[in-house]
Write a structure and sequence with these properties.
CATH topology of the largest domain: Jelly Rolls
Mean pLDDT: 80
Strand order of the largest sheet: 1-2-3-10-5-8
Radius of gyration: 19 Å
CATH class of the largest domain: Mainly Beta
CATH superfamily of the largest domain: Jelly Rolls
Largest sheet: 6 strands, antiparallel
Shape: globular
Oligomer: single chain
Strand content: 25-35%
Order of helices and strands: EEEEEEEEEEHHHEHHEEH
Length: 239
């Protein structure tokens, strides 16, 4: 039951008290087993496309878990160019890479209307004392973040743009399957420019490769909608 609700006109944000059983990611959330300690959740937060969730070097008070939507994190080069560091989807936990110094290490922005849970860092720290196993889960997630970052660096080091894009699409497919979406027919919330930025290739190259995959009957493409027709051919590009 929602206990209270308010609309913030200035920030275009909605806030609701959390009801985990109605959460879209209830069974995927690492905290759901500890629902009697649910006070670590401050509020549900809804942000719309283009809104900033947090900025680099802001004081960190919350982690965020995504109930729905897509968030990107990014930094800026010395020349002022945006460099996307990660895309986050349903069930992902945002902010793990910022815990060590209590300030956010990058910027974050919604790519579509997104619903998030705000997890209080101070209350979470107290909860670690009561439930050591929860602390271990967080450590495991942080280890996973390191692995993902290492994998991303490895991906960028590959010379062929086709390999980068094929891997990106294949990884998205696996992610969507895990969170309960179709892994063969899905919508890309990010632009081709964002994809190119993330992979270190131009938007023209992204478009050219997608057209190549379409002509090879690997993919069907309708705007941002992707249908994978042939997994084997897609994997062959990766290998």
């Amino acid at each position: 039951m929602i206990l209270k609700q308010k609309y913030n006109v200035k920030n275009i944000n909605y806030y609701n008290d959390i009801n985990c059983k109605n959460c879209l990611t209830y069974k995927l959330c690492i905290f759901f087993k500890y629902k009697k300690f649910i006070t670590i959740f401050k509020q549900k937060k809804i942000i719309h496309k283009g809104e900033v969730l947090f900025k680099k070097k802001e004081r960190m008070y919350f982690l965020y878990t995504i109930q729905s939507g897509t968030i990107k994190t990014y930094n800026f080069s010395k020349q002022g160019n945006e460099q996307i560091t990660r895309f986050y989807f349903k069930s992902d936990l945002i902010g793990l890479d910022s815990i060590y110094n209590s300030v956010y290490s990058n910027f974050s922005k919604a790519l579509e209307t997104s619903t998030l849970c705000k997890v209080s860092i101070s209350k979470l720290n107290n909860l670690f004392i009561k439930i050591p196993s929860l602390g271990q889960k967080i450590i495991n997630l942080m280890s996973k973040e390191i692995k993902i970052n290492s994998y991303f660096i490895s991906l960028l080091s590959r010379k062929k743009a086709e390999i980068k894009l094929a891997t990106f699409i294949y990884d998205l497919s696996k992610k969507f399957k895990i969170i309960g979406y179709s892994h063969e027919n899905f919508f890309l919330s990010m632009t081709r420019s964002d994809i190119g930025n993330y992979l270190g290739i131009t938007v023209e190259t992204v478009s050219r490769i997608l057209s190549k995959f379409k002509k090879s009957n690997i993919l069907m493409i309708n705007g941002k909608n992707i249908i994978i027709n042939n997994y084997l051919k897609l994997i062959n590009f990766i290998n």
